[in-house]
Amino acid sequence: RSHFGVNSETRLGEIYSVRLLQKLHLSIILTDIVMAPDQKTFVFSEVSKHNKTLDCWVIISGKVFDVTPFMEDHPGGSEVLLAATGKDATNDFEDVGHSEEARDLMDKYYIGKIDKSTVPAKRQYVLSENQSYSSNKSGFIVKILQFLVPFIILGLGFAVRAYTKDKSD
Ligand code: HEM
């Protein structure tokens, strides 16, 4: 009789632990579903497109924030937020020494994570075609002029010498 009792108890225990595991599993699935929108991972090229006053995303500590609704209210101004786009702004943010309140405020603008492998080490300034062409061209002319200056001086020297020689003869 006692043998039977022990057996049924362990079975009951097994059933309970299986149910517990099932519940745990269900709650994990539910948390995944609820949290999924917050866990979106962006690539840098996508985030860096949002670099305007009316559409501004910044990357801080591996997270992406859409600070568009905050531009006007940011105590540091909208310009610094604009300047913080197109790069990992973690250092900029930390250098200011933002308060705990500022950090709490960030949750409001959190939209997802950043795939860190897509963030370039240095800020990339993308020149328009015209800009890069004209700056290359003027750089080339300056180089030629710099190269020619000693020859012009030398030429002038010879010219002056020849001129004074002719006169004295
Ligand atoms: C979601 C992102 C951000 C939030 C929620 C935020 C919030 C705040 C808040 C609440 C303040 C007032 C002072 C304080 O409480 O610390 C502040 C000041 C400031 N923030 Fe931000 N900030 C953000 C991002 C940035 C970034 C990326 C920069 C880039 C450098 C920046 C630069 C500044 C500056 C310069 C000040 C002014 C400090 C002063 O004059 O005392 N912030 N910010």
Report on the structure:
The structure is a single chain. The protein folds into 3 domains: 36 residues; 78 residues, Roll (Flavocytochrome B2, Chain A, domain 1); 43 residues. It has a 5-stranded mixed beta sheet with strand order 1-5-4-3-2. It is built from 6 helices and 5 strands; from the N terminus they run H-E-H-E-E-E-H-H-H-E-H. The protein starts with a helix and ends with a helix. With 169 residues, the protein is an alpha+beta fold. Strand 2 and strand 3 form a beta hairpin. Bound molecules: protoporphyrin IX containing FE.
List the defining traits of the structure above.
single chain; 169 residues; alpha+beta; Flavocytochrome B2, Chain A, domain 1; 3 domains; five-stranded mixed beta sheet; 5 strands; elongated; binds protoporphyrin IX containing FE
How would you briefly describe this protein structure?
The chain is an alpha+beta fold. It has three domains: 36 residues; 78 residues, Flavocytochrome B2, Chain A, domain 1; 43 residues.
| Secondary-structure element string | HEHEEEHHHEH
Name the ligand types. Answer: protoporphyrin IX containing FE
Low-confidence stretches: none
In angstroms, what is the radius of gyration?
Answer: 34 Å
The tally of domains stands at: 3
Oligomeric description of these chains: single chain
Query: Into which percentage range does the β-strand content fall?
Result: 5-15%
Using the 3D structure, state the CATH architecture of the largest domain: Roll
Going by CATH, what is the homologous superfamily of the largest domain?
Answer: Cytochrome b5-like heme/steroid binding domain
Structural class: alpha+beta
How many H/I helical runs?
Answer: 6
CATH topology of the largest domain: Flavocytochrome B2, Chain A, domain 1
Largest sheet: 5 strands, mixed
